[in-house]
Structure formats: structure tokens, C-alpha cells
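pinned: reference chain
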Amino acid sequence: MHKFNIKNIEKLDNPQRRRTMPPEETLAKFNIKDDGTLLDVGCGIGYFTIPAAKFLQNNKVIGIDIVREILEVAEDRAKEINNIEFRKSEEYSFPLENNSIKYVFICNVIHEVENKKRYFNEIKRVLKENGYLLIIDWDKKEMPMGPPINERISKDEMMELCTSIGLKTIKDINVSPNNYGLVLQKA
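pinned: its C-alpha cells
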């Protein structure tokens, strides 16, 4: 199972990533409204968490990650922003109440999860009724970056997995040449 190594932290924010997946423009494609809390699962250094705070000026953005050291970097980067909170999380147990989140955002994390169904059930647990799951993940094709192809989950596999736990696909989003995007809703 491929897990992100904190020694490669520079990969999380670099000129190439900003060219192919600029955070503000990418988030705008998901049509996030300022009408509830956004949870950034596997937030890393806050690449999307920090710009999401601009979209949700009247609401909170929560970033969770399983690596305390990476959360410290995110906290330092966001110290001037008052509607962001970072929390240490366990992989299959998020430090949040049931049905408390309007938007769950997750980018390039699913390939690191061994028990995907259990993971998605935890996402579903924290999502409000009619809340949205916003996914960005690697296309399942050979490329010089990203995880090994055998650890990627295709867009069709992702939709099938989400449907199996009761999430409905709302929209397919063109995110970048190497990634797909999906908007799903908890019915």
C-alpha cells in the first residue's frame, strides 16, 4: 500500500502542481457555496484547505490528516485565517460528530486507503443529509507522477464504490490532465 512520505512534502505545493491544479480555480469547479462546513480529508499542508476558507467566509473549514507533523505545517501556513481548524485524525475514525459536515473534500488520498468501503462509510457518517462528497483522484493510467497504477482507483470504480454505500453521483468534473473530479451527494 502506497503511503505518502512526509520527506516528499515539496510535492504537495510546487510550481507544476499549481499549474496543473491551481487550488482556487480547482475548488471553484466544485461550486462550493458558503452554506456549511467543509472538511478536507487528508489535508496535508492545507493546499486546498486554506483557499477553501475564502469560499466559506461565514462558515468553518476543517482539515484532518493522520500525520501530526504535516498538520503543524498547515497550521503555520494558516495562522492568520480565523475560520480554519486542523485536527489529527485516525484513518477510519474522524474526530467529528455524525451528520455534521455539508462538504467533504478529498484529493488524491483514496489510493492510500486499504479498506476503502470502511473509509467511505466514515465519510458518509460525518456528512449531513443531502451533503456533498467532492473527490479528486488520479486517473488510472500510466504517468510519471502519482502512485503506481495498480493502486489507483478509476472514476468508474470510484462511482461504483460510492453508490454501494448510498451516495449518488451528481457531476463529473474535468480537474486536470491527470486527475478526475466527482461530486456525489448523500441521499
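why pinned: The chain has a mean pLDDT of 91. The chain has one domain: 6-179.
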